[in-house]
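The following record pairs a protein chain with its ligand, flavin-adenine dinucleotide.
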Amino acid sequence: LSAEGISAGAYGRTGEGWFDAHAMLMLFRKALRAKKIDFITADVTGIERQGDRVSGVGLDNGEVLEAGIVVNAAGPNAGKVAALAGLALPVEPRKRNVFVFEAREKYTDMPLLVDPSGIYVRPEGSVYLAGGAEPEERDGPAAPGDFEVNWQLFEEVIWPVLATRIPAFEAIKPTRAWAGHYDYNTLDQNAVIGPHPEVGNFILANGFSGHGLQQAPGVGKALAELIVHGGYRTVDCSAFGYERLAEGRAFRELNVI
Ligand SMILES: Cc1cc2nc3c(=O)[nH]c(=O)nc-3n(C[C@H](O)[C@H](O)[C@H](O)COP(=O)(O)OP(=O)(O)OC[C@H]3O[C@@H](n4cnc5c(N)ncnc54)[C@H](O)[C@@H]3O)c2cc1C
């Protein structure tokens, strides 16, 4: 590991820094099914609003669901869903690429490494995952359905940084890659959580800007308490409220990779 250009760092112990996102989602779904929660497969295409209340959602299958409370948890699509209720929410999809590569050296006990450039790498079984440093000049809302991988990013930006930081990564072989959409809050790269100040029964869980997995359990618990008890109990999320958006007051998250 080359420490060139680095004056300080944080070293996480092996196994720290990541978990299996898909397994977590499956565990949540299983727990909800066990509680007999209904899953409906349809797109919300309309939100019914009367003044300062929303009263239901319209689905693309023609059904209308009446609702006392509507929670917007639409990920990268959250800005569009809020607009269905006539509300502005600066959350949009931003394309992010993840690359898988093989290397002769096997660092299975290596922690997640984040370079000052924003490029990250970590082992995943016998291969490695890397990404980060998406080009700012090309950044902007992703077109719906655009999941085409930007291989140039790996060849021209990520690989040279990896090879400089970890010389053994000069000889690596990229094998697979995918692109996804961050749920990007254009004001401050941070979550927007809680009721809309003007439409109190429209609740937001949005704008996680690429760090929503690690926050999901806490946010779910906080919003469940807010809905059931009328206030936050174990996790106070008021700092993430919509009010800051209305005032243009950023609560900036800088550690987004
Ligand atoms: C490449 C990549 C890497 C990431 N890495 C990390 C990481 O390392 N750590 C981390 O914490 N986070 C990471 N994230 C971010 C994380 O995945 C998101 O923040 C998180 O999934 C947000 O969860 P969510 O439930 O709010 O939204 P999502 O998981 O996006 O779910 C939104 C759901 O709403 C549905 N939906 C949207 N519109 C409608 C509609 N009109 N009607 C009905 N349903 C609708 C969608 O189909 C989807 O099922 C990463 C994201 C990407 C793309």
